[in-house]
Amino acid sequence: MLKLKSSIVFFILLVLLNSVNAQNISVKMKEILILGNDENLTPEYLFYRINHICSDQSNNIYVSQENLAKIRVFDRNGKIITSIGKKGQGPGEILEATSMTVAPNNDLIVVDRLNRRITRYSNLGRKFKTYRFIEEHHIDPWNIFPLNSDLFLLNYLKKSNYQAGITEDDKIFHVYNSNFSKIIESFTSVADIWDFNQPFLKSIAGTWFLRICIVDSEKIIIAPGFYDGQLLIYKKEKGEWNLRKVSGKISKYKSYKLLNPSDYSNKKYPRYYMKNGKFLIVQQNLSRGIFVLNNGNIIHFTSTQKNNKVKNFVELFDRNGNYIGYSLLNELIDVLWKDKDDNFYCRTVSEQGFSIIKVFKLYINLR
Q1: 140: which DSSP letter?
Q2: Which residues pair with residue 219 across a beta bridge?
């Protein structure tokens, strides 16, 4: 966790070179806001297992958390404004905020897996419209992003495919119209993301998180959650989505390590483990967030874990996906959102064990 010496702290981060082509990067972080770090505050300022963060054009901050149906709204200074929704199945109510985003017109869009619907809230929740799912889905994970004012990108696998058995050709991205009544197109095969030649990756295909960056309505960048140093760039050309893979910082470790479950009959698993059916693995390289900056460059947050030692990095790519270089970070950063002013919203834990949100600005200089 970042240790504060004042409310605003600069962190000078070490820089390494990945190859002769990579430039040296100097990075400074300016922390501008913390939410949830004071146990003496009233409950609306405290968090438990934050799921999603997003912000609108006024930099109002929307926060959802596990086991809490309502969405809390804070102003850019961290003062609570209101809450949106409440637990239930009635109009405007929420059973589970599976995912959410802010539309270009400032509406909050909430995907509710358990209610099987999408709700569009306007005017800080004072008005809303509800849209039923138009087909059966298997929704794990689920992401939603605006492509423009008329189209939304949804990430899921169809439930029928999941029950019958996932195939390499099943699509995971679906473009919807603005009232979620029609699927315009579907693209990205499951096997583009998860290597079916690796039994563990095949077992989690379609059910493990992706970090997704919307560059514009015709360009999308994907960082697999288990990150082996390659990003996937989808660009729409002549009506088709074409895939190009680009390399960033290549770790000397594989993104995961298979373990023998029989070696852990006492269930005292190592740190950063994951159990999926018959597979027991240790997570070694993970993506922590990917975003397009206002200058067009792409920034990717990653972490590497080996022998209980964690290293954290920022990778930088230009707008065309060409690798520029990386910086070694001294703290773990799990970044969930970037606002219109290039402020980053990080989910982390305080020294006292509270779930907290840190908002920071990142300055990158090329040497």
Answers
A1: E
A2: 216, 235
